[in-house]
Amino acid sequence: MNPEANLETAILGGGCFWCLEAAYQMVNGVVDVRSGYSGGDVTSPTYEQVCSGKAGHAEVVQIKFDSRIISYEDILDIFWVIHDPTTLNRQGNDVGTQYRSVIFYMNDIQKEVAKKSIKAVAKLWTDPIVTELRLFQKFYPAENYHKDYFTRNPENAYCQLIINPKLNKLRSKFRDKLITPTKL
Length: 184
What we know:
Strand 4 and strand 5 form a beta hairpin. The longest helix has 17 residues, at 157-173. The protein starts with 6 loop residues before the first strand and ends in an 11-residue tail after the last helix. 33% of the residues lie in helices and 22% in strands. It is globular, with a radius of gyration of 15 Å. A six-stranded mixed sheet has the order 7-6-1-3-2-8, covered by helices on one side. It contains six helices and eight strands. It has one domain (3-176): Peptide Methionine Sulfoxide Reductase, Chain A. It is α+β, with helices and mostly antiparallel strands.
C-alpha cells in the first residue's frame, strides 16, 4: 500500500504566507506546508522581487494533505476563516498584489469544489469575494528563512499581533480538525 496515493496538493494565497503556513501546520491530515510563490511571470523569483509587485506572484502555501483524513473542502473551509477574501490585494496592513486572495486549482475536481466553496462563502460576507480562481502552473519555494517562521519566532511582534489571532480563530472554529493540543 502506497501511503502517498492519498496525498493531494492545495495551493492557496491569502495574505502573508507565514500566517497560512502556521495555520495549516496545525491541521490534522496535513503532512507538509511550504511557503512560496505562484501566479506570476518571473522564474524562480526572490522575496524582494515578489514584494516589489513586478514579478506578478502571490505569496502562497503549498499544502500536502492526506485526503483520507481531511478533504479539499475542509482545507478551503479553513482558508476562508484565516483570511479576509473580500479585500483586494491586501490582508490588514499587508498591501500589494503579492497578498491577494487566490486559489490555484490542480485539476477540474478542485476547480469545481473551489467554485462551490466560493459561492457558499459569498453568502457569509456583505462585501463581494475577490478571491481569484486560477489553474495552477508552477510553485516556487520561498527562501529558507521563511520556513516555519511562526514556530521559530513566536515572540515576534508580527507573530503576536497578526498570526496569533488567526490561529486562535482557527482553534475556536475547527478544533475537531486540529492536531493534538500538545503539538500546538
